[in-house]
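User: My instructor asked us to take a sequence, write out its structure as tokens, and then describe one feature of it. I'm not sure where to start. Here is the sequence I was given:
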Amino acid sequence: MFFNTRKYKEEAEKNRKYNLSKEPSHFNMLCLAVLATIAPLRIFLRLHKRRVEDLATIEPKVGAFEQVPIIYFHGFRGGDYTTNVMVKQALKDKGNPKFLKVTADLWGNFKLEGTWTGDRHPLVQVVFRQRIVGVYAIDYYLRFILPFLAKRYHFEHYSAIAHSLACPCVVRTEMRKSRKKNFPHLDKCAFIAGPFDGVTYMGDIPNVNELNRNGRPAVINPHYLYLLFRRRRFNSNISVLNIYGNVLDNTNSDKFISVISAKSIRYILAPHAKSYHEVEIRGKKYAEHSWMHDNPLVINIIDKFIGLKK
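Assistant: Let's start with the prediction itself. The structure tokens for your sequence are:
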């Protein structure tokens, strides 16, 4: 009856090629995650002098247009392997093999690799170095990564493609910073397997919660309540795509996120967004939580939504 962290680790990392020499220790990840999660303790992270290892190139922009980058975010226990397949296909659909890879740690350090392209939609893959982090720590990541990139590459809006726990964090960040003119704001956002109202067996027991006829969940956790109270801060110019999975077993979930939890964001965002689209992926082979980000159908839908593919 409890969230199986071992099973989640196995599922999330089953396609990962390990290189432990390049990864922080579990002790490092957990300690920094605690500092990032508890707001008063973040001062210790900010005292660290930021280092930027810039191995990237910047292509000159040709023409007078606003650049709106497409930024990929992974969730809990994720990494570059989470979004690699999506990025690879997006590059094909875009017809340009170049993208920017951004690796950040909770000290505020950055490693920049690849290319910031000079077209309308540069592709950016974000990797959290301390990857065993929860909602508040990912929030903290976004709140210093996004303005850093916006200042460095001169953009005001971006499109987000997020998997798992990064999904509610993208929404939280947009709502929290909605009145900040010097903070980049969403143009479009595509969510894959977002836990908006709990994770299975960790605040969300399968087949207990339900949506009323207006789409509001009967059981609401604190993170959902945060979004609910700030729903009017979600800009009406933002387009939303929400993709979730159902493996069609007795849990009505993608093994880790229930259909109810994933769909619950509709009640908050649909009345305020420019457009809101929802897609359910079904079947054990296609809808599993850690497979959906590599699912060709999911990627095709996202690339059409984001404007990379007709």
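For the description part of your assignment, you could build on this observation: The mean pLDDT is 93. Try explaining in your own words what that tells you about the chain.
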